[in-house]
């Protein structure tokens, strides 16, 4: 009889252990120390006990359609500038377009802003919050001391051809005589942007030395922009929604190529970029928007040939409404371990010392690729009850 009682007790203990939720398995002491409330309307405050970290590149993964995404970007830029010494902003825009916007950030030339924003009609980026963000970023940059200002580099393929063409036109040596082989093409970059762009692509293939001599110190950037343009044509011609992860790889590979350019242009500088959330994962996973076969930008930054391997912090923004996740989150993300932090904006550090998230996988339903939570992302930001962006006509 005693033996039977012992067996029953053992079964009950086992059942109680296996029925524990993820919240039970995560020491609440850890989260109480490393999850803090944030107010996006206020200047970010430093952590009370900042920890040493190896990070030189910070990536935030967002959803483009919410107003709080733009508030978050402002918040993180200020925080990372002050606390981490970030001086380079990476962006999910074409490299050519970013040439114009970087010039806008340094000069305040509103013509450059109007060109770049004017091409966004028909996209989610054509919204009031996006316009206000760039105007804010200029004012913030203007307030910084000389030698400490921010610079912008776009890593994406070229989605807006006119901005790309105008950038190449402004980089041309218009105060010098234009060589015969470029005499009709350079003016077209301004007067007929699409025609001029593709003529320049052909010249780069047929007469690269002519282009190199004319653009001189800007030649490498020009060639990267033209390569970006060709990759854009391939990307859109292959219809990414139909061809899946193969064509998505093309885009992220191009982002990595442009990152190498940014890394060499600004040696030793720390960088921050806000991208669609799918691009920032550092380990393969199955999600609503892509399979585990997709080699995302965050994964490429951690490959052996990356100059920043082991130095990347991915911050995933999650959106909640009345404590419930936005539509589409649940199929791949498991929030059982952080349920107490979903009703107010929080910044959760998963990567601190003795973190349970660095010891096991607690956040993603797909366990097929193994690893622990901090192999995918190192921090979370919870954004609550955000209205959608205000679209412009």
The percent range for strand residues is 5-15%
What's the overall geometry?
A: globular
Class per helix and strand makeup: alpha/beta
What value does the Rg take, in angstroms?
A: 24 Å
* Oligomeric grouping of the chains: single chain
Give start-end ranges of low-pLDDT stretches. 6-20
Which range best describes the helical content: under 10%, 10-25%, 25-40%, 40-55%, 55-70% or over 70%? Answer: 40-55%
C-alpha termini separation: 80 Å
The helix count comes to: 16
Please write out the topology.
Blueprint: H1 2-18, H2 22-25, H3 28-34, E1 35-37, E2 57-62, H4 67-84, E3 86-94, H5 95-107, H6 110-118, H7 128-142, E4 151-156, H8 161-171, H9 185-191, H10 193-206, H11 208-215, H12 219-237, H13 240-243, H14 245-265, E5 270-276, H15 297-300, E6 312-321, E7 324-325, E8 346-349, H16 373-376, E9 379-384
Parallel strand pairs: 2-5, 2-6, 3-4, 3-5, 6-9
Antiparallel strand pairs: 1-8, 6-7, 8-9
